[in-house]
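allene-oxide cyclase structure dump, as promised
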Amino acid sequence: MRKFFIPISIAALLALVIAAVSLTSLHTDVQAARVEHDRVVHVVEHAITDTVVDVGPKGDSVGDLLPFANPVFDAANKHKVGSDNGNCVRTVVGTAYECTWTTLLTGGQITVEGPYYDSGADSMLAITGGTGIYKNVHGEMRLHARGNPVGSEYDFIFNLD
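structure tokens r here:
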């Protein structure tokens, strides 16, 4: 009886490992299919860490930095779904920054680059890549100021190609 117990136990354990790997793969495939089908990812950033770093001449000047790492919520602005991490460089005094950041979400990350306007006007940023379920994505992201006061929150609306 002992002769059969060890091989049967090993076979059962192996079957469980194969099943777990298959389910993980299936879950990733389902997430990827959802991204493929939806083509739009909408999240809301809470801009709580944005800090201007005065680099050049005193005051607002070309080259100043705007680093940040903020929480990101679902489109309804109810549940935290990730975070972002990035930096902007002042390019036009009193008007615009050029920004690059990564939004970290369940299943992967999306990286963008483009303008941020002091006026709060919407801007379009290029999606430069992604990881995980967002691997090889491209497209554009609309940045829209919102919140109270306006600019304390931002809609990130990723239109994936």
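The CA atoms of residues 14 and 102 lie 39 Å apart.
lmk if u need the other ones
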